[in-house]
Amino acid sequence: MATKAEDFNEWYNEVVDKAGLTDKRYPIKGMNVWTPYGWSAMTRIDGLMRREMARTGHQEVSFPLLVPESEFKKEADHIRGFGEEVYWVTRAGKNELDVPMCLRPTSETAMYPIFSLWIRSHADLPLKVFQIVSTFRYDTKQTRAFLRVREIHFFEAHTCHVDEEDAERQVRQDVEIMDLLGRELCVPYLLNRRTDWDKFPGAHYSLAADAWTPGGRTLQVATIHHYRDNFAKAYDVGYEAEDGTRKFVHQTTYGMSERLLGAIVAIHGDDRGVILPPAVAPVQVVVVPIPEKGRQDEILQESRRLAAELAEHVRTEFDERDLRPGAKFFEWEAKGVPLRLELGPRDLANGVVTVARRDAEGRTTVPRTDIVTTARDLLRQIQHDMYARAEASLRAATVDIAAPGEARQAINRIGWCGSEDCGRQLEADTGMSILGTPFPREPYGGTCAVCGKPADAPAYLARTY
Amino acid sequence: MATKAEDFNEWYNEVVDKAGLTDKRYPIKGMNVWTPYGWSAMTRIDGLMRREMARTGHQEVSFPLLVPESEFKKEADHIRGFGEEVYWVTRAGKNELDVPMCLRPTSETAMYPIFSLWIRSHADLPLKVFQIVSTFRYDTKQTRAFLRVREIHFFEAHTCHVDEEDAERQVRQDVEIMDLLGRELCVPYLLNRRTDWDKFPGAHYSLAADAWTPGGRTLQVATIHHYRDNFAKAYDVGYEAEDGTRKFVHQTTYGMSERLLGAIVAIHGDDRGVILPPAVAPVQVVVVPIPEKGRQDEILQESRRLAAELAEHVRTEFDERDLRPGAKFFEWEAKGVPLRLELGPRDLANGVVTVARRDAEGRTTVPRTDIVTTARDLLRQIQHDMYARAEASLRAATVDIAAPGEARQAINRIGWCGSEDCGRQLEADTGMSILGTPFPREPYGGTCAVCGKPADAPAYLARTY
Fold first, then answer.
1. Is the CB of residue A464 less than 8 Å from the CB of residue A217?
2. Contact criterion met (CB < 8 Å) for B27 and A71
3. Which residues of A17-44 are buried (b: 16+ CB within 10 A; e: fewer)?
């Protein structure tokens, strides 16, 4: 098997397979099968999003998948941005359709004609909805499980507001939610305001959460867009203001996807397999009996009791299959179960349980009596340590450079005047992409590495997925 | 507004709109928008299915939406059955696809090539999975919210077994699950074994749950299919048996859809709106303050306290909008909230709360002190009564007839020898469809109403949706 250090890309592919998170053998490239295990992890991530949406007053909806070409083309930048990568339904049964319909690449063009019917007056605002659905992009680059797929498991929140400022408040709320989710998923990131030539098609501005992967590239794991009234004008989403005049709403969107699961795999996995954060691991604790000849029944029985006790408090699997313990360890490690408990004859004699943390080497023993408290404490500790380690890596990977020639396989912080010319030059000189400027703005006193003019903000340069 | 008694179809359309369960103004016919309220009800129905799947050892998966034409065409009956009503993706970006891909009308052809990889030996069996996804059918009949749509919110369980008998056991388990769900959703039904010419394309036999709607038609709300090894042979889903030989698996599927929500609307709704069973109502109790001049604050405060107390135990909405109580009643009745609590000055003075059951006329008062217990008891009673009333209607609508000429707008039970000729004749003579024969078989001593030969079982004849 490839090692993570030597061949990250190959390692990633293998580790995803070994964990059984997805099955890539479906006969359409980039459209993968969610296995029970992978789907369980993904829907736990969805669950965290749903919790946050409920907390912040968003309501869940579900819009149709198909968008008529006529609606899709109403926002000019949007169609320019997505036109090359949408799938088209042109036939139904044996009939050619009069108006082709595309599979949503994202749902602005499906939702906004309906928003224009739902919103009448300022009393209907803000409108805050979200959905978790499949979106489709005909991406011609090499596909990679979770990171670059053609059917994408997607979260999208869409909001409408009375004015730009209220939409701005929504952006800040989304940023806070992302902060929480990043911690729970153990995926730290830099939040960047994308350049104008790299923002979402139709957006006023775009923020993106860029995680750092050991493969030496950043990975965009979430985006937050402020649309101002660009889409509202194209789709006639207006309202009667308190003063009786008609105004257009200001809109935002917040998008995340299965890439978050890919980021967890990429950041935390090791040569034994993936490592899942306790917050989203389908199995948090696996109990493996270590039988001894003549005492099998006793050990199985005690292990079963241990597992049953734990199962009332944490997601527990009791592995009583007729396999060598070593084979079981190998499998659960590949699957990334955060905590393994073993119970053998010596443990039984000493009133202890042997524990192995998936995110650390070695084993220890803990008293059998407090096992539920101990397991919970350990899971909390694993959760904390996974985030801390990933954050340290992100920090270590973020370096200051003074000239494009110094750029390394890292996130390179460099002075930039903000002009497109100098930005493109930086990209050309480094062979990297500008991720944009930090959000929120930080004080910065540098100069542009290209033109030498004063720079309000640094730019981040990196290779990206 | 149309009344249910006079114009069921028009009433149905209006009542769905008034309740805000779906928005039919999406620019593609038969593809509707799930509003927050409708989606909340639907996902509660999904939740009951998920609970039952977990209880019976099914695992949730998610397969790709698109199926290559080459895979889709492998099972000959299946393609004959669905060929006329699938949507085809033929273009991606600006490229014509070499192999068109269809939007799943159901997922046999997406799943079974992968099952053939997942299953190696008898130890991998039974395989029991399910998914809840959108499916697509280009239905040319008139569309109707939840009952006949082109993007269908769909539940599908797929299982593989060592032999026909084990698959048969699965069918019986599905029947039990359906029984439970029917009670919770207050949708009673007749379980029929479909005729051979009406079974699922590719199935050995099909069972269907047919509910009775006041519109005078039956509505198929669930199907359970036994495939034997028909699909297994087409998709090469085999396993190594204990004796070392290679065998094909026997398969079953169990399908349900948003039609269940449509059935609830059709069966229970009245001229004031829909009535949702407490088990799936997004709001189980609405608390409406009845303010009196000069005592507004006190009444609002007490109502809020009441709602907060209830909210810890049942799904409660506190309606403190600045509207007349009558307008609020009207709206919550249209939405089908099972229980309404009112708190006015007289209630306050007497230490009581006024309660109105959505499924009954009139109001009563109950002591304020035991309100949580009272509300729970009432919800249980509503749940029970709704089912009982619907079951009585179904029984009343099921009539025995001796000759086709006696057929009424009902579910007509008639002797049938089982031959296709006589069956088609019964359909032609009545202008109705044969729903099939009761499952499980009941003792029956009649004769065929067409040929006069002995009949093993009666057939049910009805108009269908």
1. yes
2. yes
3. ebbbbbbbebbbebbbbbbbbbbbbbbb
> Which A residues, 147 through 206, put their C-beta within 8 Å of a C-beta on chain B?
151, 153
Q: Is the pLDDT of residue B446 over 80?
A: yes
CB A141 within 8 A of CB A148: yes
Q: Across the interface, do B34 and A129 touch by the CB < 8 Å criterion?
A: no
Q: Among all residues of chain A, which has the CA nearest to that of B134?
A: A65
What does the pLDDT average to over B53-67? 98
Selected for mutation to probe chain A from B24, B28, B98, B128 (highest A CB count within 10 Å) is B28
B90 in contact with A at a CB cutoff of 8 Å? Answer: yes
Domains and CATH numbers, chain B: 8-268 (3.30.930.10), 285-384 (3.40.50.800), 398-462 (3.30.110.30)
The angle formed by the CA atoms of residues A314, A316 and A322, to the nearest 5 degrees, is: 170
> How far apart (Å, rounded) are the C-alpha atoms in residues B173 and B176?
5
Angstrom distance (rounded) from CA A391 to CA A211: 10
Question: What tokens does A5 get?
Answer: 């250090």
Nearest to B62 among A34, A86, A117 (CB): A34
Question: Smallest Cβ distance to A94: which of B84, B93, B94?
Answer: B84
Give the Cα separation of A105 and A138 in Å (integer): 9
Contact (Cβ atoms closer than 8 angstroms) between residue B16 and residue B146? yes
Helix (H, G, I), strand (E, B) or coil at A94: coil
| pLDDT tens, position by position, A56-108 | 999 999 999 999 999 998 877 777 777 789 999 999 999 999 999 999 999 99
- CA distance linking residue B306 with residue B318, whole number of Å: 9
Cβ neighbours, 10 Å, residue B283: 20
Interface membership of A106 toward B (CB under 8 Å)? no
As a whole number of angstroms, the distance between CA A225 and CA A253 comes to 5
Return the percentage of chain A with pLDDT > 90, whole number. 92
Residue from A22, A25, A33, A98 whose CB has the most chain B CBs within 10 Å, to mutate: A33
The token pair that represents A316 in the structure block: 């527990």
Please give the mean pLDDT across all residues of chain B. Answer: 96
Q: Which of B376, B293, B358 is nearest to B366 (CA)?
A: B376
Distance CA A55, CA A51 (A): 6
Percentage of residues in chain A having pLDDT higher than 70: 100
pLDDT of residue B407: 97
Between chain A and chain B, the number of residue pairs with CB atoms below 8 A apart is: 143
Would the CB atoms of A61 and B93 count as touching at under 8 Å?
no
Question: Strand A205-213 to strand A190-193: parallel, antiparallel, or no bridges (unpaired)?
Answer: antiparallel
In this predicted complex, what is the ipTM? Answer: 0.96
Residue B164: its pLDDT value, please?
98
Amino acid B232: pLDDT:
97
pLDDT digits (tens, 9 = 90+) for B229-288: 999 999 999 999 999 999 999 999 999 999 999 999 999 999 999 999 999 999 999 999
Q: List C-alpha distances in Å: B126 to A119, B120, B196.
A: 51, 12, 27
State pTM to two decimals: 0.96
Identify each DSSP E strand in B104-204 by its residue range. Answer: 127-136, 151-161, 190-193
Distance CA A160, CA B331 (A): 25
CA distance B37 to chain A (A): 8
Q: Least CB-CB distance to B114: which of A26, A59, A103? A: A26
Q: Please compute the mean of the pLDDT values over residues A285-297 and round it to a whole number.
A: 92
CB of B344 within 8 A of CB of B296? Answer: no
